[in-house]
Amino acid sequence: MQKLLVIVPCRAGSLGVHRKNVRSVAGVPLIAWAIEKLLVVAEAVEELDVEISILVVTNDPEVAARTQLWSQTGAPIAVLERPLSQAMANQTLDELVRWVMEQGRDDYWDMVAVHQVTSPTLRAQTITDMIQWFVENDHIDSAMTMVADTSHTWTEDGPHPMRRVNRQFLYESELRFRESGGLQICRDWPHQDGYYGDAVWMIGDAHDPYVIPNEEGLDIDTPADMAAAELVLERSSIAIVCAGDHDMGSGHVRRGAEIASALSPFAEVDVYFWDTPPDMRKLVPGIWRHGNLTAEELSMLWANFDTVVLDTLDTTDTRDITAKWPRKTVRLESLMVDANTQPINGLYTFPIGTSGPLWIDVRDEFKYLPPYPIREKLGRILVLFGGTDAANMTPGVCNALMAAKTLNDVSVVAVIGPGSDVKRSELHPRVEVLEDPSISYEMWNSDVVITGRGRTAYEAAHVGVPTVSIPVNIREANENQAPPGALTETRSLTYMDCVAKLIPVSARLEASTLLQEGVDGHGLDRIRDEILKTAKEQRRRRPPVEFEVT
After folding, report:
1. Which residues pair with 211 in a beta bridge?
2. pLDDT in tens, 14-60
3. Distance CA 380, CA 446 (A)
4. What are phi and psi of 219, to 5 degrees?
5. For the packed helices 61-71 and 30-44, what is the interaxial angle rounded to 10 degrees?
6. Straight-line distance from the first to the last Cα atom of the chain, in angstroms, rounded to the nearest whole number
7. How many CB atoms sit inside 10 A of residue 320's CB?
8. Alpha carbon of 209 to those of 11, 94, 144, 146, 515: distances in Å?
């Protein structure tokens, strides 16, 4: 088994950030980020036949005391007191390493590395990968973490005029790399007669860069660096689980993509699926998209993520899991009340949790439109029942409208969704059928919309078009709320009666005003903020521990 000594230098008296080694970033002191990551790495690289010892070299009593707490747990960590002569601001890292190795340490080290406390964003997985790469490439004498610097750099003569191009078009030979304090490693420390060889300077004859992501290459030297590291380390990990099929429709999958997009500037997001066909999974961009989960994989999400967002409609498969992790779960739209979690949705009337039109997610397509015009005469009715029309409502509604004598001069327009089984031959010949339309434009250009009680009704409400909302199944009849201002069927009122009520311009004006007042279009923002709030409350306060050796 090869032996690796990892030196963690901690000099008190930072010039850029006062007492930075014990300052907290994302709730964890810098020294703790360093030590806990290295302990994770020590466990991981045992599979590579590498034994790690961690040596914290410090003149800071608080750092020494914190380190002693870890050593008392049996962790492979020790403290070496750093005298003032070895803690001057102008001391180089190589000089410190030489001094450390001269302190009568009798062990033979196959490799020596330095991990600086000021690199908290470097992940345990990256350190593990780098050690594995270094072990496997024994022709390399030394290596260090670096990040690609693609900025336009000048000499006294300026840049080459032909090569001042977009960064993504730089030749590989033109790339420059900036050193990071994350990890520097070298081989062979022969402890013979006090001689340690040229490698004591940490750079051997064959030296390679180990390129890491830029956000992992942050080095804290200034308060601005502290703020940048805080932003990186505070990013929660969030899993979104959504479901769709040709009966349920694609609304939950589309919303999964919308929520992922809204969360991605603030968190690490992954989208998974539950029994969803491949064509619907493609609605989520590949940067977030994963496949269908097995039951075992589903149960692991709560352990691996700060928060899990469920948009699967039916929580039967997750009830036992949410009982174990209730505070890490945000649930959207369930068929059943789950006492373990509170729902956020705008479609159902649950006795607990948040619901109602304030939580409706309205796509951007419906947000940025001119004011909705109320026309004097009712001339166009738009009929659409989502992407699947599972209840096959479109033919019956359209044909009834065409048969109504009071609507002789009204055009009827139908949208047949991509997952619908409705055939053009089922519709009256004078019904106009739209394929792949802009729904927001078609709504804005219509005088009445007839739809179900799903999100489409709320999108129509946000546009302001007078809406007739028909419950298309028992669930919608018993649990869904119609948008405020929408007319809906009751035991004594049919949808045709509702359409008749909207013939007068005054009735349509009143309905449009109520609809727009009831749905403000910021539901997705509220859902995003609620998810981030939950994720922050459940944020792992220990550095990430997931790792693997391939």
Report:
1. 146
2. 777 888 888 888 888 889 889 988 988 898 888 889 999 999 998 88
3. 5
4. -115, 125
5. 30
6. 18
7. 10
8. 26, 17, 5, 6, 60
